[in-house]
Every structure is written in structure tokens, then in C-alpha cells.
Write a structure and sequence with these properties.
Layout (H helix, E strand, L loop, with lengths): L12 E2 L16 E2 L5 E3 L5 E3 L3 E6 L8 E6 L7 E6 L3 E6 L2 E2 L9 E3 L4 H6 L1 E5 L2 E6 L2 E10 L2 E6 L15 E9 L5 E4 L5 E7 L17 E5 L4 E9 L5 E6 L9 E2 L3 E9 L5 E5 L6 E12 L12 E6 L9 E5 L7 E10 L2 E8 L3 E4 L26 E5 L2 E5 L7 E4 L20 E4 L8 E7 L1 E6 L3 E5 L13 E6 L9 E3 L2 E5 L6 E7 L4 E3 L8 H4 L4 E7 L5 E6 L4 E7 L4 E7 L4 E9 L4 E11 L2 E9 L24
Parallel strand pairs: 1-2
Antiparallel strand pairs: 3-4, 5-48, 6-7, 7-8, 8-9, 8-10, 11-12, 12-13, 13-14, 15-22, 16-17, 16-21, 17-20, 18-19, 18-22, 19-20, 23-26, 24-25, 24-27, 26-29, 27-28, 30-31, 31-32, 32-33, 34-35, 35-36, 36-37, 38-39, 39-40, 40-41, 42-43, 43-44, 44-45, 46-47, 47-48
Length: about 650
């Protein structure tokens, strides 16, 4: 009697031979004995795999290049695949190589060999792709246009700098001394006063000139000191009228060697200077200042100026009305404002803002909890170059150098290319820490999924600011192990809110996601049902295509291509194996026309020689039978066009 078996779904994918007798397993009822060159849909059905279309040869058939996706955004016209060969790079855009104006291939020189590029980790922000490899200092690849690309080594100095020599600064410059005039007589100690010049005790003497209007008279006599801003000069040039800056210490006559005339002059120097205005004090000390500029466009704070100093009164002997006038480059369109810092007990603390390049210190107490940034580049020497990179909480994160395989470095908040710190530290300063454990396990991956997931060769860890979702700061870092499976060398991938990683030694593919019931991250072995695909093998490359069927594509060390249909919400984890006449060597995924496009590098033997080509998976959506393409390395010719 014939017995019909109803199998409503094939969402289990190919089942490992070791499980053929496990009829008790739930997925047994929806599994396949063999699934080769078929795609398992997340809805439970299967379709034969479309072919890989031939796009072109690699740059050098003797070298297996690395394929790295470049995504400005999720639009299909803003993505491409970068082909990294030996110290060269080509660009594949919308199925073809990018060509220059003369029709030549665009080839960019790189610092990486093809083997290094295959090991390289990357993270992207807009038109900039940040790159990390243990044999090279961290770098960025920046796109100006599809034909213009540039590699730059990161120095981690803030991009915004203090205005330079093209900006105007105003400084007080001495014009002349009292000269032959015996003394000058002030009429008062504050407000508007007159200054009369005498050649003898009874005979007034002409001294002033019309150009003295707008200048500053500095009085520094034995019994009198201060400054007067000149507003008018009498016709007989004997009397100058002016405003006292602060207060004069007395109305005593001042001898010729006790006063001088100064003028504000424009200069192209970017240096800041200090000048004193005000009364006499008994106790003096050296007052030192630093100034930074804040970018109008980004809000980034520059490195501070060189310290500049002036002898002034002590804080507890500061005469009323006395001030230290700091002068530097004036306001510019690039500068939102200047931040001024003052030294106290060896530390510089914030004392105020200046919008126009002039600041007056009237005995302001420095806030040493707010100090100027100090540049730092932790990646200057061989052995100190990071091999992992990712973004988290508006910071660019690096990890795993040869000298510190369990070390983590994070940029300043919002400024990816600055590792600057302050003393004492601020919450947005750069962060440095190491994972503490009984074993020094190298970090194998960084992933941001609400928390920062740190995968090592021995454990899976969650890093936050002390509680779920809390911001990381230099003084608030907590690392908690979640499990101890250990990750392999390939960077992890993300599907939804789940992290997938290759377990150490390439023995399994595991997922990791937050579980409310345990208030932590847990996961499962996603390859347990198809153990024969990964056991004793090595996954050399992988990529994730979310649309249409949430497929992870993996290149095995024997040249086979594996696919894992992963849809956590419906408990779908279905494996299939794909083969071709040749061996798969690399895989990458970018956004395409209504789906994710899968690019591969395939090596084939042609007339006894190894030929490598870049190919793209054809669409499985067929609206016209003439568009069906189920051959690998195929090209389509339409004679109707």
C-alpha cells in the first residue's frame, strides 16, 4: 500500500547524516536529505539557485583578491564592491568596473597585499571607510567621486586647528617712551581723565600727536601704575584726554622713564599674547594661559595653543579693576568661539569664552575639572597597530594589537579621528582599556547592538557604562562575559539584533542575542543540524544578504559555497551547499535593485591555466522566460536590442 508523506515546509535545509535517525527532533519533519544548489526561502520553500553572471576578470589571475563592500547608504546607486589585489584596488559599480574619462580602468594604489586585505577589518561612515590590520597603522579610504579615491594614515590629531597666519590678530606694540619730557601729570585715577606733559616743574611741553588717539598710555612709575586709552589730543599737543582702563594707583607725577605710549597693531601671527591693565599690587606671580578654538561646522575643539605668560598679581592681591587682556586671531567663519584656560598648581582649567579673539581675565578662578585636550596617538609603532575596528556610541573603536591583543581604544565622542584626552578626564574623552581575565585571549570582533559586543578567542562579552544601554566614559566601563565558546578570526556579522560569528577553529556558526528572560546575551549553534558542512573545514570568507531571504553566504576552504537561511523570528536555520565548475574564493554583498547582490570571486581552470573572475548572482525573480539565467559564469546577449 502506497503511503503519502505530507511535508508542509522545507525550512530545515539539508540535514547532517548523523541525524538521519533523530525522528524526535522538531526540524526533522521539515528537513532535506540533500540540498545542493538550491536556495531555502525563509517562508519554507526552496528554489533552484540562479547562475552567477560573469562581470569580468580580476586584475591579476595569479592573485586571489579580497572583495570589500563600500556603502555610502542603502541606495543601490551609492554602493560598490572594492576589489583589493596586491597593492592595487579596482571598483565594481552596478555590475561593471568603474572607468576613467578616457575609458581606462580606475586603479588605486594601496598599502595592502591581497592577503592582508582579506584579513583587514573595516567600518564605514559616509564616504570614509576606516581600515584596520595588525601590520599597518590604522588608515581611512575616502571617496571623492567614483573615480577618485585616497588612502590616508590616521594620526588622531583633531582635524580642526587654531586659525593660522591668514587670520588677523591685534597686539599692543610700543610706539615711544616719554623721551625728553620730564613727567606726565594725570588729573585723576579713574574714568575720563587728562594727561598733561611737562618739560619742567612749571612749563608744559607739547608731546602728543593726533595719531595718539586710539593708543594706550602705560604708566609704570614707582608710585603710580595703570593704563589710559587716549580718546582726544589738544591742539597745543600738551593735553591728552582718555579713559582709565581699570584704575590708576594715584595721581602722582610720573617721570619720563615711567610711562610709554603703545598702539594696537594688526599682525598675521597666530600666537596669542597677554597684556596687563590696572592698578598696583604688592605680590606678583607668573600667569600662564592656553587657548583652543571650537569649529563652527563640527563643534570639534582644537589642540591648545602654546602656553603664553605674563607677570601679574596673585589671586589674593588682585587690585580692583585690574585685568589681563588676552589677544589672538580675531573672529573667523570657521571658529564658533575660543576657549580660554588658565594655569593653577600645574594644571590648566577653563576660565571662559571669547568670540572675537579678545578675552579679559579679571581674577577668574580656573575650573580644573574642564581642561584643554591633549593629543595622543596610541598606534605609532609596529606591534601597536590594531586589527579590529567598529563604531559604537558615536565613537570609532579599535582593538587587538600584537602587543595588546586584549586591548580596546575608543575615540572621542563624535570625533572619530581624535584620541585626545584631558587631565582630569572628561566623559567625552578617548577611552582605553583591556579585557581582564585569567587568559589573555585576543579580541576577534567588535559589534554594536545597543551594547558593545566584544568577541575574543575564548569568550563573548558585553561592554557598557555599568548598566544596560549606559554610555561608556573613561571612568565608567564594565565588561561582563556572557558565554565561553570563543570566536574565530572572521569578523562577526549582524542579522536584525542578533550577532552571528564563526566559532574558534571554524567548528560551528553561532548566534548571540539579548534574552529578556535571563537579562543577558545567549545564543545557539546554528550549524548543529548540518554539522557535516563545517566540521573539519574552515570558513574563509562570509557575507550577509538580508533581502530577499536573509541568507548568510560562506566560502569554505575547499572552494564550496555554503548558504544559511537565518530567520530568528520563525526559528529558521536552513543550510545548503552550492558548487560550480571551479572553486569559490571570496564573497561580498551590497545593495542591488530591490535585493542584495551577491558578488563572488571564482577560480576556474581554462586551457590548463587558472583564471579568476568576478561574478554576481542573478535574480531569482523571473518576469520573462527569456531573462532566466541558471548558468554560472554566464553572459547575456540580447540580439533584439
Amino acid at each position: 500500500m502506497t503511503q503519502r508523506l505530507f511535508q508542509p515546509s522545507l525550512a530545515g535545509g539539508e540535514l547532517s547524516p548523523s541525524l538521519y535517525g533523530r525522528v524526535d527532533i522538531k526540524k526533522y519533519a521539515v528537513a532535506l536529505r540533500r540540498c545542493r544548489n538550491f536556495l531555502v526561502h525563509r517562508t519554507g520553500g526552496v528554489s533552484n539557485r540562479p547562475g552567477f553572471a560573469y562581470l569580468g576578470d580580476v586584475a591579476d589571475h595569479a592573485v586571489c583578491p579580497a572583495l570589500i563592500p563600500f556603502r555610502f547608504n542603502a541606495s543601490s546607486d551609492q554602493v560598490c564592491v572594492l576589489e583589493f589585489g596586491d597593492y592595487t584596488m579596482r571598483v565594481w559599480y552596478q555590475g561593471g568596473l568603474v572607468l576613467g574619462e578616457a575609458g581606462q580602468e580606475v586603479v588605486v594604489t594601496t598599502p595592502y597585499s591581497a592577503a592582508e586585505a582579506a584579513e583587514m577589518d573595516h567600518a564605514q561612515s559616509g564616504d570614509i571607510l576606516y581600515l584596520a590590520h595588525a601590520s599597518h597603522p590604522p588608515a581611512k579610504l575616502e571617496r571623492t567621486s567614483w573615480t577618485e579615491w585616497a588612502f590616508t594614515t590616521l594620526d588622531f590629531v583633531p582635524r580642526f586647528v587654531l586659525p593660522e597666519t591668514d587670520n588677523t590678530a591685534w597686539k599692543l606694540v610700543k610706539v615711544r617712551d616719554g623721551g625728553d619730557v620730564i613727567y606726565v601729570v594725570p588729573s585723576g585715577t579713574g574714568g575720563v581723565i587728562t594727561l598733561k606733559t611737562h618739560g619742567s616743574y612749571t612749563v608744559p611741553t607739547a608731546f602728543w600727536v593726533a595719531a595718539d588717539v586710539g593708543r594706550v598710555v602705560k604708566i609704570h612709575g614707582r608710585t603710580n601704575s595703570g593704563e589710559v586709552f587716549v580718546t582726544a589730543v589738544s591742539e597745543d599737543r600738551i593735553t591728552a584726554t582718555g579713559m582709565v582702563l581699570g584704575n590708576l594707583s594715584s595721581t602722582d607725577n610720573v617721570g619720563a622713564d615711567g610711562w610709554s605710549v603703545w598702539e594696537y597693531q594688526s599682525t598675521t601671527s597666530d600666537a596669542w599674547s597677554a597684556a596687563r591693565s590696572g592698578g598696583v599690587n604688592t605680590n606678583a606671580e607668573l600667569l600662564s594661559y592656553k587657548v583652543t578654538a571650537v569649529s563652527e561646522e563640527t563643534g570639534e575643539e582644537s589642540m591648545p595653543s602654546e602656553a603664553f605668560s605674563i607677570t601679574g598679581p596673585t589671586a589674593d592681591d588682585w587690585p580692583v579693576g585690574t585685568k589681563i587682556v588676552l589677544t589672538g586671531p580675531g573672529a573667523t567663519e570657521r571658529v564658533a568661539y575660543y576657549r580660554v584656560y588658565k594655569e593653577t598648581n600645574g594644571l590648566y582649567g577653563y576660565i571662559g569664552l571669547s568670540g572675537d579673539g579678545v578675552f579679559e581675565d579679571t581674577n577668574i578662578t580656573p575650573d580644573i575639572s574642564d581642561s584643554p585636550p591633549d593629543a595622543e596617538n596610541p598606534f605609532t609603532e609596529a606591534g601597536d597597530f590594531p586589527s579590529k575596528v567598529a563604531f559604537h556610541q558615536q565613537r570609532l573603536c579599535f582593538a587587538a594589537t600584537n602587543n595588546a591583543p586584549n586591548g580596546v581604544w575608543m575615540s572621542r565622542t563624535g570625533f572619530y579621528e581624535s584620541m585626545s584626552k584631558s587631565t582630569p578626564t572628561k566623559d567625552d574623552d578617548a577611552i582605553t582599556f583591556s579585557l581582564g581575565s585569567g587568559e589573555v585571549n585576543a579580541i576577534r570582533g567588535l559589534v554594536s547592538v545597543n551594547e558593545l559586543i566584544i568577541l575574543t578567542g575564548g569568550s563573548e562579552n558585553v561592554c557598557n557604562g555599568g548598566s544596560t544601554g549606559a554610555a561608556l566614559t573613561p571612568s565608567s566601563i564594565t565588561v561582563k562575559p556572557q558565554s565561553y565558546w570563543g570566536a574565530g578570526v572572521l569578523s562577526p556579522l549582524v542579522s536584525g539584533n542578533a550577532v552571528l560569528f564563526i566559532q574558534g577553529l571554524g567548528s560551528a556558526v553561532r548566534d548571540l542575542g539579548y534574552e529578556y528572560s535571563v537579562d543577558g546575551f545567549t545564543g545557539n549553534d546554528q550549524s548543529i543540524m548540518a554539522r557535516h558542512f563545517v566540521e573539519g573545514a574552515e570558513i574563509r570568507d562570509w557575507a550577509y544578504a538580508q533581502v530577499p531571504d536573509s541568507l548568510f553566504w560562506m566560502v569554505r576552504d575547499d572552494g564550496a559555497l555554503l548558504s544559511l537561511t537565518y530567520f530568528k523570528e520563525q526559528d529558521v536555520g536552513a543550510w545548503a551547499l552550492h558548487s560550480t565548475e571551479g572553486v569559490f574564493e571570496r564573497v561580498a554583498v551590497i545593495e542591488g535593485d530591490g535585493r542584495h547582490d551577491v558578488y563572488v570571486v571564482v577560480a576556474r581552470q581554462v586551457n590548463g591555466q587558472t583564471r579568476r573572475s568576478v561574478e554576481r548572482l542573478a535574480s531569482r525573480v523571473i518576469n520573462d522566460n527569456d531573462d532566466a539565467a541558471f548558468l554560472d559564469c554566464h553572459v547575456i546577449y540580447d540580439g533584439r536590442q
